[in-house]
Amino acid sequence: MLGSPPAERIGAVSEMKQPRWLTPNEREMWMRLVGITFLLPGVLETQLKRDAGLTFFEYHVLAMLSEADERTRSMSDLARWSNSSLSRLSHVVTRLEKQGWVRREACPDDRRATNAVLTEEGFAHLEAHAPGHVDEVRRQVFDVLDQDQVRAMSEGLGSVLAQIDPGSSAAPNGHCG
Amino acid sequence: MLGSPPAERIGAVSEMKQPRWLTPNEREMWMRLVGITFLLPGVLETQLKRDAGLTFFEYHVLAMLSEADERTRSMSDLARWSNSSLSRLSHVVTRLEKQGWVRREACPDDRRATNAVLTEEGFAHLEAHAPGHVDEVRRQVFDVLDQDQVRAMSEGLGSVLAQIDPGSSAAPNGHCG
DNA sequence: CGCGTATAGTTGAAGGCTAAAGTAATTTGG
DNA sequence: CCAAATTACTTTAGCCTTCAACTATACGCG
Question: In the prediction, which pLDDT does B50 show?
Answer without folding.
Answer: 93
